[in-house]
Amino acid sequence: MREEASTQVRLAARPTGTPDARTWQLTQASPPTPGEGQVLVRNEYISVDPAMRGWIGATPTYTSPVEVGDVMRARAAGRVVASRDPSLPEGTSVVGFLGVQSHALARRDQVRVVDASAVPLIYQLSALGAPGMTAYFGLLEVGGCRPGETVVVSAAAGAVGQMVVQIALIMGCRVIGIAGGASKCDFVQRRLGATACIDYKADNVAAQMRAACPYGIDVYFDNVGGDILNDALAQIGLGARIVVCGAVSQYDNLGAVQGPGNYLNLLMQRASLRGMLVGDFEAKFPVAIAAMSRWMAQSRLDCQHHCVDGIENFPDALQQLFAGRNVGKVIVRVR
Amino acid sequence: MREEASTQVRLAARPTGTPDARTWQLTQASPPTPGEGQVLVRNEYISVDPAMRGWIGATPTYTSPVEVGDVMRARAAGRVVASRDPSLPEGTSVVGFLGVQSHALARRDQVRVVDASAVPLIYQLSALGAPGMTAYFGLLEVGGCRPGETVVVSAAAGAVGQMVVQIALIMGCRVIGIAGGASKCDFVQRRLGATACIDYKADNVAAQMRAACPYGIDVYFDNVGGDILNDALAQIGLGARIVVCGAVSQYDNLGAVQGPGNYLNLLMQRASLRGMLVGDFEAKFPVAIAAMSRWMAQSRLDCQHHCVDGIENFPDALQQLFAGRNVGKVIVRVR
To answer: Nearest CB to B244: which of A62, A258, A267?
Structure first.
């Protein structure tokens, strides 16, 4: 199979605020030729994630920053189009950190082989990928949610949030979503089936939380930080668990993050606030994937994708994500 | 035995800021006579606690507020001087919420009988009382500290802090205290034996923490909140546990508590922040008391008391506590 040209999105300059057009540089080249033990993967789907904001900052976080000039780091799913590893023949579907580019060289230990006949490949970046794993382990293991409990999820129409809502419902919880705008709230309540959804752009969040959680919040799954985290802290119940998964409201503001002034309620309610990174649970991913696949086969779990076509539109896709213009998981579909 | 007169400190008005003389009213009366099933206790020691600030606020916390006009709530230790309960004969030493007063009526289920021959009675309000129990369960159960770990304790010269430092040392931890002023730091390092003590009034706390905890903090036992909690969050290691025991820096400021902006490091370090109230562990107090008594008998554990004489000086004792003028547990000694 002959590949005509390859396209890459590279980090051109570290952004100070929100990443914009100047942050990125589009380059083209002939597709590389795999060396011994390598394969060439043609990416079909590229995952656009809030964590990318941290990866392009100057300070190392839980992983090293992307260097200026390098291809932007991203999870991607694609197929092997040239192989010099007999264990990964041409046509094999794989996922891994393959970057924001049309083609990637990879070795066996850099990719995970997936069965694209059972579930469409795009789900490997959503329900069966990092967002799904984050929701599963964050809610069930870090949050320890139990049937009947009240679970509150921020960014409930987002990639992780939509999975948390559905898994919590499957667990038999009362689930209150928080999202911005009527159409997202409609998605969360009607499509996902949440007990209620608070529109943080329209409602008084604190008052709505009080109304929706008369016995207090048992698990708060936080994707946003800021005022909403603080409002949730005011409404936690005895022994509540707050899962800190992200803080998308603060990512452009990392020098002066807003701390939750209501944290002392953790003391009153003997509650905890715990950070998580999904990579720590990698050894248990197969357990989660089996459960999630079963729920999908039973039509109890699905995943909404917000697709943007063309690698050259990755910068725009990322801006849509940070502006909250997506419903569901943002994916760049490679043409 | 005939008691001449009894003295009470009552809540005269809820303070808006720091409690002062106007907050309190001193009253005198004849000692009450116990009814059937009651005893009259003459208090010898009254515990002065940071939590009192919450008890006299208008908003219910984990317990109901003290009402204006009522005797101020306090833990106290004393002896039965008149009894109409055969299980509590005259001379029995007891502790309980007996109030800031010279004499208290109590029933059997309101006091705990203690052996004042083994350990001086005052220790029932410190090492073997709430501060000791808070330190034991906060450090060992909530904090889960393990030998060799780095433990950081704020208000290390205070009632709870001095116990945390000593228990952590007994556990084989590296222990870094934080305290205000050279004499407190001297007490923490020389008398208690801490590995190091940071003077938050003199040192750059963040820089000193970095220097003292090169591999990161494993357990941070927080009594103060504010900037010091935030500095500790910046220095936590992988899987760190932060125990929220109090926030003395914020108690005059409960309407606008300073939230820890560095809380997102919980995510990077997969760490947790958990609130505790010592009362939740009451069923296990005997285990802790046995361990602490053994350590005291072995001279591995002691407790410093900061005594103020006379019930009428309770308001001053409380002010000394909030101004941080005490080294060790603040106790009002009844004359």
So the answer is: A267
Half-sphere exposure of A274 (CA within 13 A, CB side): 23
Q: What does each C-alpha distance from B171 to A67, B84, B151, B166, B218 come to in angstroms?
A: 44, 45, 10, 9, 14
Measure the CA–CA gap between A96 and A30, rounded to whole angstroms. 22
Asked whether residue B81 carries a pLDDT value surpassing 70, the answer given is yes
d(CA B17, CA B115): 39
Question: CA quadruple A166, A192, A185, A194: dihedral positive or negative?
Answer: negative
Element housing B274 (H / E): strand B272-275
Which residue, chain included where needed, has tokens 């009382």? B129
Considering CB atoms only, which of B261, B270, B275 is closest to A277?
B270
A270 closest CB neighbour out of B230, B250, B280: B280
Element (H, E) at B196: strand B196-199
For chain A (335 residues), the mean pLDDT of every run of 10, in chain order, is: 82 89 94 96 96 85 88 98 97 97 97 92 96 97 95 97 98 96 97 97 94 96 94 96 88 78 93 95 94 95 97 96 94 95
Q: What are phi and psi of A168, to 5 degrees?
A: -65, -40
Closest approach of B212 to chain A, Cα-based (Å): 22
H or E element in which residue A185 lies: helix A182-186
Residues of A in contact with B266 (CB under 8 A): 244, 273-275
- The string of pLDDT tens digits covering residues B23-56 is 999 999 999 999 999 999 999 999 999 889 889 9
B256 and chain A in contact, CB less than 8 A: yes
CA Rg, chain B, in Å? 20
Q: State residue B249's pLDDT score.
A: 78
